[in-house]
Amino acid sequence: MKFIEITGKNIDDAIEKGLKELKLEADKVEVEVLEHGSKGIFGLGSKPAKVKLTVKHDYTTVAKIFLKDILDKMDIQSEINIIEEADIIRINLEGPDMGILIGYRGETLDALQYLLSLVINKENKDNDYKKVILDTEGYRKKREETLIRLANKLAYKVNKYNKSITLEPMNPYERRIIHAALQSHPHVTTHSQGEEPYRKVVIELKG
User: Fold this and answer.
1) pTM above 0.85, yes or no
2) Is 84 in contact with 59 (CB distance < 8 Å)?
3) How far apart are alpha carbons 133 and 141 in whole angstroms?
């Protein structure tokens, strides 16, 4: 759980500075007073107040803090939009240079989504797992449409030439799209083979 320790002229001043640094409202943190501070005599020997601000485990807050830290380190300017549903947190990033964030076939975006999922669910005391979907520029939808078209095109070839086809390695998310796209196909079936991260989808004739 993220926290900061910060000093100020008094407790209120320290809390205000801490909230400003975290970019959070007061209800998003827990405050622990470490040192009350003192004014000293005639301004001499004064000691600042010191507080510890701990970010409450609010999924939206945790996600924003984590992403902001990562994006700042990558020198990427982005607006973070989050929609929290019952068991899913949907996050969309908007800004310039999103291609860098997506990476080759979404590898960077997938890696960031995986790390974010770990961070969000790490301190979940209620075992209430939250699925994280991180997207930008509608990439997920576009990639899904591309994979569905590919699946149907290859299924046609498998049926026409009576020869199985093995696709290139894909992550679990993309393999599920291929399997789902051909699940009800009348002539072909699919299965995965190999070990991660080189696991592949195989399309072959039924029977």
Assistant:
1) no
2) yes
3) 12
